[in-house]
Specification:
There is one protein chain. The protein is α/β, with parallel strands linked by helices and 344 residues long. It has a single domain (36-298), classed as Rossmann fold. The protein has helices at 2-8, 11-29, 54-65, 77-91, 109-121, 148-176, 201-217, 236-241, 247-252, 261-274, 283-292, 302-326, 329-339; strands at 45-49, 69-74, 99-103, 130-133, 181-185, 224-228, 278-279. The longest helix is centred in the middle third of the chain and has 29 residues, at 148-176. The chain is globular and about 75 Å long. Bound molecules: NADPH dihydro-nicotinamide-adenine-dinucleotide phosphate (NDP) and 3-Dehydrosphinganine. 3-Dehydrosphinganine binds next to helix 8 and helix 12.
């Protein structure tokens, strides 16, 4: 007893105890421990804009396997029809299961309201239980090469494509007192912009701003909000963006190994189950997450360690990435000259 007491008062033991206590108190005070929730969409109405391809399609498949009713939204009706045929096959002829597509361009407010209404009509006009805002596109390129239309569609097709639906969905859930869950899909570059993404990153930052705003407000209505921040996903959209992506951006992205849409869905679902507000796929995204989170909840006590690490990693990140850009000065000059950029 005596030895234990004297050991306890040894300075390093005391210091360690105080440090551990401080960490525990601060983590609790900061509400760092996200509460795990059950994710059981069986028999629930899931609304998946962007569900015909890539991440959204893989998610729709996962939801069908879990026994959910799934409505997807996309512009290309024939691709949607193929996806729905696949979903019906997965459901194995379950006649009760509602699986269909709505065709709409969600960059317009009217079309977003109408698409939601069309989907809900099949559920007696009830609001969805789960909404996964997966629609989006990217046309990465250097800022000087982007047209006015590229920059505008970078907000329409990245921000408004989800924001209009979020607005329509929230109003509907609140009116009907449906305690739903809304998941936004932003991106690594919604935390940390890198060269070549100026038409896209601002829209993803804006989406994060909207998700943070709703996280802060939806306690009023018992609506849950999640924000998914993936890095590269090997999807049709990814294949397409490679066509315009600048060599500098490709070089920077060499540090990121893109994952399959199915793997991305596993991270997303795990994040929802853990009750995490911000959901990430990898270590580097966690580094930029803790560096930019502000007052939103952390994902657990490990974020304290990440936070300290991030303070060291961020300046290295910046030097590596800025170095890649700086060393391309000459080749970009030549490239612009070859384009005739300076000629008038
Ligand atoms: N792939 C990646 O590396 C990453 C992607 N993300 C984000 O994840 C999400 C999914 O990406 P990904 O799977 O690659 O995308 P894909 O291009 O593979 O699929 C996009 C889906 O959204 C639909 N869609 C796009 N624009 C609209 C629109 N205006 N109205 C209605 N539906 C639309 C598409 O259908 P249709 O064209 O027929 O309308 C399709 O169903 C996007 O928000 C993307 O920004 C984030 C980080 C990395
Ligand atoms: C220690 C320092 C190392 C430096 C590491 C740099 C890592 C950069 C990773 C960039 C990943 C970007 C993913 C963008 C995904 C996206 O949203 C688009 N594909 C759009 O579809």
């Amino acid at each position: 007893m005596c030895t234990i007491t004297s050991r306890l008062t040894e300075p390093y033991v005391l210091a360690t105890a105080v440090a551990v206590l401080a960490v525990l108190v601060s983590t609790l005070a900061m509400g760092l421990f996200s509460r795990s929730t059950s994710f059981d969409p069986r028999g629930k109405f899931c609304y998946v804009p962007g569900g015909s391809a890539g991440l959204g399609k893989a998610l729709a498949e996962d939801l069908v396997r879990r026994g959910a009713h799934v409505v997807i939204v996309a512009r290309d009706a024939s691709r949607s029809a193929d996806t729905i045929a696949g979903l019906k096959k997965l459901a194995g002829g379950d006649a009760e299961r509602k699986l269909f597509a709505v065709s709409a361009d969600l960059t317009s407010q009217e079309a977003s309201e109408a698409a939601l209404a069309e989907a809900c009509a099949a559920f007696g006009g009830r609001a969805p239980d789960y909404v996964f805002l997966c629609a989006g596109f990217s046309k990465p390129q250097l800022f000087v090469n982007a047209t006015a239309a590229d920059l505008k569609s970078g907000l329409d097709g990245v921000y408004w494509v989800s924001a209009w639906t979020a607005h329509a969905v929230v109003k509907m859930m609140v009116k009907q007192r449906v305690k739903g869950t809304i998941t936004f899909v932003s991106s690594f570059v919604g935390y940390a912009a890198i060269a070549g993404y100026s038409p896209y990153a601002p829209g993803k930052f804006a989406l994060r701003g909207l998700a943070d705003s709703l996280r802060a407000e939806m306690f009023l209505h018992d609506i849950k909000v999640h924000l998914y921040m993936p890095a590269g996903i090997l999807s049709p959209g990814y294949e397409n963006e490679q066509k315009t992506k600048h060599a500098i951006t490709k070089k920077i992205e060499e540090s990121d190994t893109p994952i399959s849409p199915e793997a991305a869905v596993r991270y997303l679902v795990r994040g929802i189950e853990k009750g995490n507000y911000q959901i990430t796929n990898d270590f580097m995204t966690d580094m930029v997450r803790v560096a930019t989170a502000g007052p939103v909840p952390w994902n657990g006590p490990l974020d304290l360690v990440y936070s300290a690490l991030s303070a060291i990693v961020m300046p290295i990140f910046r030097q590596v990435v800025d170095g890649t850009v700086r060393s391309s000065k000459k080749s970009v000059e030549e490239e612009l000259q070859a384009q005739g950029f300076f000629d008038n």
